[in-house]
Amino acid sequence: MKKIAVLGYGVVGSGTVEVFYRNKAALEKKAGDELDIKYILEVRDCPDERYRDKFTKNFDDILNDPEVKVVAEVIGGLKYSYGYVKSALEAGKSVVTSNKELVAAKGAELLKTAREHNVNFFFEASVGGGIPIIRPLNQCLSANEIDEIAGILNGTTNFILTKMIKEGMGFDEALKIAQDLGYAERDPSADVEGHDTCRKICILASLAFGKHVYPDNIHTEGITKITLEDVKYCESMNSVIKLIGFASRRGDEIAVMTCPAVIGEESQLAGVNDVFNAILVRGDATGDVVFYGKGAGKLPTASAVVSDIIIAAKSDHSSKTMHWEDSAQDFIIPYKKLSNRFYVRANADKKTVNDIFGEVRFLSRDGAPESECAFVTGEINEAEFEEKCGRLNVLGSLRVLDY
Ligand code: HSE
Predict the structure, then answer these.
(1) What does pTM read for this prediction?
(2) Domain co-membership, 241 together with 155
């Protein structure tokens, strides 16, 4: 019999317990052992909960119980989770987590701690919700040099953008629905300002390129400045706006960024709507492989947590293959050196635009005021783009990405 502890009983924690007991018999067959959840760590009183006899407010109950072999951390944030996870690993318990902030900030260190104590640290649920991506990237695609990863990695913002594009809904109303559906982070600024996507692309990049990529070193923009006017202009060029995280190999260096971007309708990422995520991985042997599914929500995320629990429960030793090095960040190209085409909406006349940007593609939309001008530039680097924008009254701009 292997005993499990679940840290946190919010959306993902309660989903984890639900999926575990719903499929317990089948999970035990897969694990080749009897399994049970012995503890649920939760600070709130939950007197009416079905599993109230398992609740504890004291992490030491879990840490000091030798029966507990696997700990599932689904609290989120760093404040409590880092200490709990580190001490559980040091006590010889495997840990699985859905906590992307923790993995993005402390992944290299916690993987090392797990190896040193011959246990596992798994985090399939930290990227892409219910989509299998961590293990496929680490194992099934391991024959490849990964040249590129690009993805729609945040369900909340993709839901909001879909509502804006398809229904003309305003930003705040769409965010409220996403929160009610349990997609958004406790503080939704992590979603809409791009930090959640940034953490996820950092995890994928660390795994693919073997060196820890820290979120603080990555240029990150969210979707709060996108307007329905931008949506309309992009429509006029058969394109949509998506929040993209990308990591791209450029020789010995990598380019990594999170930004809202204009994507052509023919792209495999363009038709990914609502809470769905998609992750495109370009391997030197496979070419493009695309992973698609629900990127947030109680049961899809719980699915990934419970799968990790089963694999951790089955294993008597550290897998050792899930690994990346801690590292100086000198292999990350400063974003101002990167080049793109850009979409721009400005208060300007066409002549001024041509004088500053040279040849551009002008766009149109119904009902645009006389003073407004929208266009797409040629390839230009970020620093140069910023300098040129300083000479115009820019209302909005987006990178145009080819995926
Ligand atoms: N807030 C996240 C999202 C949850 O919307 O994608 C899943 O990581």
Answers:
(1) 0.97
(2) yes
